[in-house]
Amino acid sequence: MIYNISLLKGDGIGTEIVDSTVKVLEKTAEKSGDKFNFTSYLIGGAAIDETGQPLPQETIDGCLKSDSVLLGAVGGYKWDNLSGDQRPEKALLGIRSALGLYINLRPAKLYPALRNASPLKDEIVGGGFDIMIVRELTGGIYFGDRGYREGKYGEEAFDTEAYSVTEIERIGRVAFETAMKRNKRLCSIDKANVLETSRLWRKIMHELSGEYTEVEYSDMLVDNAAMQIVRNPGQFDVIVTSNMFGDILSDEASQITGSIGMLASASLGDNKPHLYEPIHGSAPDIAGKDIANPIAAILSAAMMMRYSFNRADMAECIENAVDRVLENGWRTADISNDGNYIKCSEMTKKIIEVL
Ligand code: NAD
């Protein structure tokens, strides 16, 4: 098969990690007899420098024509003083909305070889954990009415959380389907003891659970979930939650895996192309030094193989290669705990060697 992939390298370490990922994908395709055509488009600070805007129309059009999109990261010191609308990060919301991506899948997995990198005690993470967080991405309080008004105590600011039945049902179905492909356990996280949107969320999730009887379903309040993720992360398989709760809980879950440089994500919608990106930013503090960890981006490409191309074979090939390199003791600086580490380019070579 021939797959057309748009590359949005962006800024900082975005370039290094996407270049590494391309090499890994090329080797994977060589082995399986497939072919990837890569086309790069500008995004973020690099796009501002070249065109004056963080998300040029040419980038959107190019992505829409492709089968899938791989994003590095955007942002950096150089653009930090620009106003909100002109900042590189503005391109992130723009590309998600242009591609209609309302589902965010964020795996948080503790690799046995990296157990020491987790800030949690061995007795908590000894058994490992592998959580898939399904976060609603285009609704809720981040997209509701907002503004300033005169309130009881004078001027006040407000943001509004709104969720429709349709929005809840479509993300709920994705979560149940995801659970069906994994260990068939789903926990829906809300704040139904306080919020009306959460009560509707919970009602719809309960209705769906009647359709997916094979899935062991539970609800949890978000404050309890924040505790349970650090108390006993192994209890979770798939988590589904709203945009804001997912934003916060997925960052919490990422931290207990040890390094942000290991974590991939997928943003999906009803139609292709979908977008895959590491959860970390452009890491301007280490950019250009060849010391970034490319694994988050490489695992994002593995998610692309599985979710965009239905190629579990290629996804597993990449994931197994990453596992083996870690088992063999190779570490980039962010996941090394004895001061010994290899560079980004060397880690890429090690992964390619065992593919
Ligand atoms: P960051 O994720 O870029 O970096 C946080 C810390 O983690 C830094 O010390 C960095 O060196 C380290 N780190 C991140 N990725 C790493 C990797 N692959 N290997 C090794 N170490 C890694 O977050 P930040 O410093 O808060 O933000 C930097 C810039 O990135 C800002 O402009 C921010 O707005 C932007 N940002 C972009 C995205 C995105 O493009 N999706 C996401 C978050 C932040």
Q: Can you walk through the features of this model?
A:
This protein is an alpha/beta fold and 355 residues long. The protein folds into two domains: 200 residues, Isopropylmalate Dehydrogenase; 138 residues, Isopropylmalate Dehydrogenase (3-Layer(aba) Sandwich), CATH 3.40.718.10. Helix content is 41%, strand content 21%. It has twelve helices and twelve strands. The longest helix is centred in the first third of the chain and has 19 residues. The structure holds nicotinamide-adenine-dinucleotide. Nicotinamide-adenine-dinucleotide binds next to loops.
Descriptive key words:
alpha/beta; 2 domains; ten-stranded mixed β-sheet; binds nicotinamide-adenine-dinucleotide; 41% helix; two-stranded antiparallel ribbon
Radius of gyration, CA atoms, in whole angstroms: 20 Å
Give the end-to-end Cα distance, rounded to a whole number of Å. 19 Å
The helix/strand class is: alpha/beta
CATH class of the largest domain: Alpha Beta
Bound ions, cofactors and other small molecules, one mention each: nicotinamide-adenine-dinucleotide
| Average pLDDT over all residues | 95
Whole-number tally of structural domains: 2
Q: Characterize the overall form.
A: globular
The CATH homology group name of the largest domain:
Isopropylmalate Dehydrogenase
Count of helical stretches: 12
CATH architecture tag of the largest domain? 3-Layer(aba) Sandwich
CATH topological fold name of the largest domain: Isopropylmalate Dehydrogenase
Q: Provide the succession of SSEs.
A: EHEHHEHEHEEEHEHEHEHEEHHH
